[in-house]
């Protein structure tokens, strides 16, 4: 048999896979040729089957002879050409066929009841280029980006300060396709009932939901173990990964033990790799000021003590950013208006159906407040819409007083990478109507009503009187100077008296290092001042937190939360807070010469130590699809204050076109400085 690997891969847009096995997309014909058949073609019967118990009614087995036309509903074979000793046949699968690895057998009826001959195996994938497929995406440029592109950009930081880094999805590299298929075969659904599970693999809703559970380790020994503690001993710090390939390969190599450690963007990036590999258009989405509403009341509560410390109390939280996925497919279960982008989230936050999985939630359903639709719409709706309540809590008496509430802070600057360019696109308006507009408030009310929150008395909720109380003063933190690791942090606290009476204010200030979920890790600074404000007066108070004070306690997220709790004599307390993200110093990548396929080219990475102390334990990590196989790790000698280092290495590209080289530099004072360079091969 000749599988025509090259021609079929070209027609099915699977040429980027480096496989000796035929990989094709459903709903589209592929050609095979037999030799030595001796005019049996009229009497050939093919059997294509997948899964452990193939059956016709489960649509995991198809038996079909040679016919004159292609069938839309079923598998079919059409004669292409014959010679004296060979026959070419075009085989088509239906657009809703089960995806996965198939065995192909052939039987000749003219030989009597001979047993079928096994021709070998092939892999069938989703087909976003085929109009009959649930994942059909009409825009060709979007298909290129969301299925075939191996490089991505992930946005992070906070709403005042968005930063980004490159990621190597690498869905076509090495053994990734086999690992993706084994993820499906290791899911809880497969373990419980293999035959039924395989029969549902024609449905992108099902496949997406199952894989959102398999990317995290909870429940099913899935790919990645989450860790948000700030201490990553016994594994790799989540911010040090640069691509999904290493994670998926490590999972397989260890005998499918969960890889340590992941945080939200790592879960989302791995899910992007797996879904793109299987042919479902997928992208990563970053939501800034993302709510984690643990109790389903569309409200997150935050607690502060009298000194202004953010208390780790209650299950609700507001993350500086959270990353999830959108995948493109139709929703026959909900109707055409809910088709299109669907939200999937592999980060283990809350259980759904008893296990840690999330989605697919229709993005249109989220925008319209249709939170009663499958799957997990209330949780996703809260991530972008929840109201925020800030309480002063006294741990000794257990009493809490509402300081203020906000309905416009959650879900801002929702971001994804542009199609065909390395830019940020803001898609907030695809998730909700303009913040504060009547339409947006109506949708919020509709969602509350559908969740039964309108009629239910909530003893933990603030009273209308508490919500309506007006503060006597306002405050904010302004940044005064660079936000860079290695430099002192300079801020200005601005307080303004909003009344026509003089006010005395006791201000308790703290600064804590945090992880990106705003979970406080270590106190780095505190101070308190007493202030008198004349009627309508505004005063500024400079604050300096030195590098020496924060250096020891900074997490690898480079984040600091600064809080001022203002006790106003005779008035309500006012909370002023700001989340600060510090930038790492830059690294520079230079390609020395022309890059050509199968020829060595030199690359130089330059880093200058910006601080006045030595940096040690320097490691450079390099990867890039079609440029390097696996990951290059280079130890870099220690650098004295202000010293510049140049590290050179060679790459041998094995595919032509624009390729992305990703580097990650770490040392004892700076964690995971990332950069990437486009190399035109």
UniProtKB/TrEMBL annotation:
Gene3D superfamilies for this protein: Immunoglobulins, Transglutaminase-like
Single Gene Ontology MF annotation: metal ion binding
Enzyme class: transferase
Cofactor (UniProt): Ca(2+)
Transmembrane intervals: none
Active site positions: 264, 322, 345
Domain Transglutaminase-like positions: 256-348
Catalytic activity: L-glutaminyl-[protein] + L-lysyl-[protein] = [protein]-L-lysyl-N(6)-5-L-glutamyl-[protein] + NH4(+)
Keywords: Acyltransferase, Calcium, Metal-binding, Transferase
Residues annotated to bind Ca(2+): 385, 387, 435, 440
Cofactor detail note: Binds 1 Ca(2+) ion per subunit.
InterPro entries: Ig-like_fold (IPR013783), Ig_E-set (IPR014756), Papain-like_cys_pep_sf (IPR038765), Transglutaminase (IPR050779), Transglutaminase-like (IPR002931), Transglutaminase-like_sf (IPR036985), Transglutaminase_animal (IPR023608), Transglutaminase_AS (IPR013808)
EC number: 2.3.2.13
Family: Belongs to the transglutaminase superfamily. Transglutaminase family.
Protein name (Swiss-Prot/TrEMBL): protein-glutamine gamma-glutamyltransferase
Species for this entry: Struthio camelus australis
